[in-house]
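Morning!

This is the sequence you dropped in the shared folder:
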Amino acid sequence: MNNDFNINLYKKSQQSSNSVKTPHEIVRFLMENLLKSMKNIHNCINLVDESLEEAEVQKKMSKKELAAFKSKNASKALTIIYSLQVSLDFDKTPEISRNLFQLYEFCRIQIINSLLKKTKTGLIKAIEALKEILEGWLNISPGKTQSV
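The structure's back. Tokens below.
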């Protein structure tokens, strides 16, 4: 696992780097924040959904603020996906790494599609798949994970 890259990404976040100590915790942190960013993107799409009244959008945040928030979350999500992808160890766990890489790539594509096409269907599927992976990750004993 490329721990230096992940640790640097983590340090750039607003949380203290002292709370993450193991590769297992780093991956958990990254996946949780990826989910959070993807959910924020989904919520932004919901706010500008044509079925909502313009006044409803204005109550929550201006269109400019909404676009900036969505862009910030997309950038963060794509950076986290890259970090997770480069952390995979294809030599030690080729099948698992390949499957996770494909999942992360699916998430990346759905994020981009949601931004370009303003559609949320694929993004919802990606969020659900990532939730399942995170749930499984949380059930893994940290002592058993030497590499992702």
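Headline: The first helix runs from residue 3 to 12.

More detail when I'm at my desk.
O.
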